[in-house]
Amino acid sequence: MNKDVIDAIREKEQLPDSMTDSEIAKEYKGTYTAARAAISLDHKPLDQVMADSMAKVLPFMRKKK
Fold first, then answer.
1. Domain map (residue ranges) of the chain
2. Please, what's the b/e burial string for 13-41 (b: 16 or more CB within 10 A of its CB; e: otherwise)?
3. pLDDT 10s digit of each residue in the chain, 65 long?
4. HSE value, Cβ hemisphere, 13 Å, CA-based, for 30
5. What letter would DSSP give residue 43?
6. Which of 1, 3, 10, 63 is most exposed by smallest CB count within 10 Å?
């Protein structure tokens, strides 16, 4: 399992730093959580994609910051 994926799982699942990378890899190998973490490295979250698309189609609905 890639270090980037392990770091993403650690962040998403709020795992303690005391848990080693190999423990996380063994625990989460082949799980839905690992798949989502791997996908999130390459792609924006679906909510963000939807918000960006809506902003292009309906610019007046864009959130003001």
1. 3-61
2. eeeeeeeeeeebbeebeeeeebeebbebe
3. 788 888 888 888 898 888 899 999 998 888 888 888 877 777 777 777 778 888 888 777 666 65
4. 1
5. S
6. 63
